[in-house]
Design goal:
The protein has helices at residues 44-52, 74-79, 97-104, 116-125, 127-131, 142-154, 172-187, 199-205, 223-227, 230-237, and strands at 6-15, 18-28, 33-38, 59-64, 67-68, 82-85, 160-164, 192-195, 208-213, 216-222. It is an alpha/beta fold. The strands form 2 sheets. Strands 6-7-8-3-9-10 form a 6-stranded mixed sheet, sandwiched between helices. The radius of gyration is 18 Å and the shape is globular.
Length: 245
Amino acid sequence: MSAPLLQLRGVHTHIGAYHILHGVDLDVPEGEVTMLLGRNGAGKTTTLRTIMGLWPASQGSVSFRGEGLAGLPVPDVAQRGIAYVPENMGIFTDLTVQENMLLAARGARHAAQIDRARLDWIFGLFPALQKFWLYPAGKLSGGQKQMLAVARAIVEPRALLLIDEPSKGLAPSIIQNLIRAFGELKRQRSTILLVEQNFLMARALGDRVAVMDHGRVVHSGPMSELAADEAMQQRLLGLSLGVHQ
């Protein structure tokens, strides 16, 4: 087997006086969707933020393509082709959709320089963004804001996408749109580490899964294995994927 694109070994993270991650071991294979699951407070968001360098690891290693990321400033992590979509979406509400996309397209100085073919592909995934291209992002619905947040992350090809709970608070119809969009990214062999509480989405998209509890990864393996084992779901997550059909 080839080495994982992203690898965490023995990662501890402290936030002030709080010890959040307690030795996280995690492999993210290239070209696959890895779901990061767990109860609230298990450490999932902290894991993504530690990878991105927003919160520094106090111990252990984070490596990407065999290169250590620990201690690098966030812009340097991003320059390596890692994009992060936070739970709060991270869009600029006072700017238009176009301006938000332009800021994320590092190779473009004005909108006409954004790769047109890629932009048309994104509009195919999220038609609302084309419709509201010149609208302030703050006037979009919650689902449209989430679409914009994901679109910003993929406006240029990225080696790795870190996405935190994209379906949180969204209507089922919008969640289905996101599943279709992420499914297209999956078909293109994008590498995604996806934190998600919606288990329909987890089962539909995940190739592999890592389950966290109390700041550690307590299970990892194929998503299909977890989806087929209700006893394991109950033990690891406290509920069954079967109830989310």
